[in-house]
Design a protein that fits this description.
The protein is α+β, with helices and mostly antiparallel strands. The chain has helices at residues 18-29, 46-54, 98-112, 127-135, 162-169; strands at residues 7-10, 58-64, 67-76, 82-89, 118-123, 139-147, 153-160.
Length: 171
Amino acid sequence: MEPASDLTIDLSVDEAALPGAVEVLHRSFAEYALTETPSGAMVETAETLAEEMRGGTSVALVRRGAVPVAFAKHHAADDGTLYFGRLGVVPEARGTGVARMLVEALREHALAAGLDGLSCLVRADEEGNIALYERCGMKIVGRGERVSRLGATIAVVEMRDIEMRDAARRP
């Protein structure tokens, strides 16, 4: 697939876009189905996403032309950051800059909303994802465990935009 040059990013899709969003979500996380800790993303539906949207979560979708290729959920967190999760890119669009563009768009959105940058949780064994977020300016600030929607306990790292938080507080 070509580099990410013909992409559109919608950081807050409406409910009509949710069936396509779920398809991207499922395709992006399907590889976890064969692991010891499958992803709870696989049980998400348009209905569960719509319910989260009613509670204040936004769904972002990246499209190449009319075809959705990436997904993320996000909401303002209690710590003053924009928390994002479930960021996923369909296999054929990986390595083209799509994830980086989505993270950068989320950061711009966070700062425009007066937030201190981004935060997220990442599976501790996902070294590639951690490295991507580090290249995007995030740092590991904590480690812990999280219980997935499927009941699996997963080791995670907490990541944040430390530099942006500090810069936002300077006079």
